[in-house]
Queue: 2 jobs
Job 1
Amino acid sequence: MIAHVLISEEAIASRLASLAREIDAVYAGGEIRAVGVLKGSVFFLTDLLKRISTPVSVDFIQVRSYAGTASSGNIQLVHDLSMDIEGKDVLLFEDVIDTGLTLRRILDLLSSRHPRSLRIAALLKKQLPENADLLVDFLGFTIGTEFVVGYGLDLDERYRNLPYVAVWNPKT
Ligand code: IMP
Ligand code: MG
């Protein structure tokens, strides 16, 4: 079912090292409130945070598209943050930006709580017109529109623990 490896373990590690340097430069002298979007971002978040030296606290949020109306982009909050983000420098971690609807809704929700700053770190962004205006502050890789699994990304909850990102192809 895995067609081919798209991004190797080595390529991910090397990109994360560069992203970590960028993040440390941007937040120099400050403190980061990392917010992971469950569950996909967990692998990316932990591997990246281990490489940064800026002080950081970690929290998580989980959302779900309303059944039947996924395309409307309405989301249901499954698990909310455990800490207040008002006045904090929030760095939101997402696994993949597809249409961007999920991320937009989460950004709206978090913005309404008045963080001092709100930036985005995403492992992957698909090349789609729908998400073209969504600016990612720290982006791992731009990919095509293929469905991918591994390194946190799932297909019906499977494959998250693959150490690489692979293209999933039902025909193989
Ligand atoms: P969006 O709202 O369309 O941007 O979708 C974002 C969410 O859909 C991600 O957080 C993933 O959970 C899921 N998703 C989108 N594309 C993929 C993929 O290629 N593989 C696995 N999950 C995906
Ligand atoms: Mg998923």
Note: The longest strand covers residues 56-65.
Job 2
Amino acid sequence: MSFVYKADPSRGAMWAKLFAQHAPDIPFKLWPDIGDPAQVRYLAAWQPPDDPARALPNLEVLFSTGAGIDQFDLSSIPGHVPIVRMIEPGIVEGMIEYVTHGVLTIHRDFLDYASQQQAAKWHELTVRPAASCRVGVLGLGMLGKAVLERLRLFGYPCAGWSRSEHSIEGVDCYAGEQGLDAFLARTDVLVCLLPLTPATRQMLDARLLGKLPRGASLIQTGRGPHLVQADLLRLLDEGHLRYALLDVTTPEPLPSDHPLWTHPRVRITPHIASATRPETAVESVLENLRRHRQGLPMIGEIDRGRGY
Ligand code: NDP
Ligand code: OXD
């Protein structure tokens, strides 16, 4: 029996050390040096190998090394193999930091001040209270909820939108198609923390973004294909949207001649909003291995039908 890691090799080396410390009884292998493929029971991967059923015929559990699993082709993974996404505090803390920074940057006009500095222009803009900057988060899962719980401490009026009904203290919760327009109409900074599924692909288009109040901004921390990038550029140029902070794009990396790079009201980061922290990730995986052996449900097991 062995556990294989197939993702960034330098992080893999850290996982190997942590497995040696905390689970020396589990043979840990780094892709592609996996030994006998028939021995592999567990795989932690960002991208599984092509045709996993053939490559690893006795696989029992597939762990994603990230919170999302949209990079997996679910149809290629045998139905009896549970797919478990990464639930660990490092991802959550990173996302809270990134989105909080983004909301503060937009609310406190730091991007306008950056442009003013380039022009050596000393000009005070009116300082608006947090209460005037309404934040709305698409997705009320592990990340959306954590981000909202932090943002509301700053005094931002907070709302969230999800598929099913939620109730979160201090957050106006909207759900489903019927709740979407009202949610958008009250949102000055829209944050996308949805999983990428057939239902959410290309969802951030001109129609949806056009329902935000004029002057609203977007923080895109979900997945590149949620957003119709041409529509975003058009809405920015028309002045309907003020700023876009993009951590994810289509494709990744974004080609060097893409107009998003040079748009004066777009900021781009290379998919770094948050990252799995090896120490807590290994803890989470070991806990799930224990649960799996005891026949208990694992934490973060995805529902293939919903796609997340
Ligand atoms: P969760 O699975 O915990 O939560 C997903 C949320 O989205 C749920 O509230 C769910 O609703 C909602 N949702 C899903 N589909 C729909 C839909 N069709 N309509 C309305 N709401 C929907 O995910 P996480 O919070 O852990 O992560 C969210 C995403 O963040 C990841 O899938 C990934 O794409 C992205 N991410 C990005 C990172 C980065 O560095 N940029 C890092 C980590 C994650 P319900 O509650 O009703 O089920
Ligand atoms: C993730 C990511 O899904 O880093 O964890 O995007």
Note: The mean pLDDT is 98.
